[in-house]
Amino acid sequence: MRPVVSGALALARSCHPEPTVAVTLLVTALAITTGRDLSGVLIVTAAVLTGQLSIGWLNDHLDAARDRAVGRTDKPVVSGAVSERTVGVAAAVAAVACVPLSLASGWLAGSLHLVAVGAGLVYDLGVKSTRWSVLPYVVCFGLLPVFVVLGAPGSPAPPWWLPVGGALLGAGAHFANVLPDLDDDLVTGVRGLPHRLGAGGSRLAAAGLLLTASVVLVAGVLSAGAAVPVPLALAAPVVAAGVLAAGFAAGRRPGSRAPFRAVMVVALIDVALLVAAGPVLVGP
Ligand SMILES: CC(C)=CCC/C(C)=C/CC/C(C)=C/COP(=O)(O)OP(=O)(O)O
Questions:
Q1: Whose CA is closest to atom 10 on ligand 1?
Q2: pTM of the predicted model, to two decimals?
Q3: Domain covering 159-284 in this structure, CATH number
Q4: Span 270-279, pLDDT tens digits
Q5: CATH number of the 1-138 domain
Q6: Which residues have any ligand 1 atom within 6 Å of their CB?
Q7: Do 239 and 254 form a contact (C-beta atoms < 8 A)?
Q8: In the prediction, which pLDDT does 284 show?
Q9: Which of 7, 38, 152, 231 is most buried, most CB within 10 Å of its CB?
Q10: What is the rounded distance in angstroms from the CA atom of residue 92 to the CA atom of residue 62?
């Protein structure tokens, strides 16, 4: 493969592609159903993509030495496919681009999105190694749907359950994402909240938070009178519980990312509900 192409692919793999793509697609879908026109949707997509890219790249840039120490060959910086410096520069470029792209949705909505991205960057910069490690996820995922709704035409006020559901989802994702890395992290001195709770506590926290997120979102969606069939909405937490049980069971194998993937599926279920509720989130 030509060096430019393989370098670009390695850079793409270094951004944490799964959460980056998932978060961007989900927020884009919410922007569509909350009534933005094509340019409005593209602006939201670009703002969220650049924000998530900056968080993902900064994470790999700052973690390079630690990832090398524990032989994380899944990381392109560790395998030498892309340099630490390139990933750092990419993070900075994405963060700078994110500022005007966010503010294009309005000052209030844009500023809240920048706080969400800032929370992710602060996580990378060191909060991930403290007892407060879950807070950036709470802030980031609580604010993302608020950004979309407040940035819609007429700046409608988001209902209370929107940031609450998003924050619960983000907090659950943190515990699930850290699970496969608990042992490696302890070797390199990373002691966030999941490490302090241990594998069992983190597994319970992730499942509890994600299920609570599903219940809050279903209650919100139904109380807002969204055009979602009631049996389908009520089935969501039940399906979420099944997916989590299967994902966490598979995740007992060392290094498995099954719990994180289960979280992604549950997040998809929750966001499908949210997306369907989009039209009522912005009023008649
Ligand atoms: C922080 C935040 C609000 C993120 C938003 C979602 C997002 C884009 C996540 C991808 C990047 C990231 C910080 C992963 C966790 O890193 P890690 O160092 O805990 O784990 P790793 O071993 O997967 O890099």
A1: 56
A2: 0.91
A3: 1.20.120.1780
A4: 778 878 888 8
A5: 1.10.357
A6: 16, 19-20, 23, 52, 55-56, 59, 63, 119-120, 123-124, 128, 136-137, 140, 177-178, 181
A7: no
A8: 64
A9: 152
A10: 12
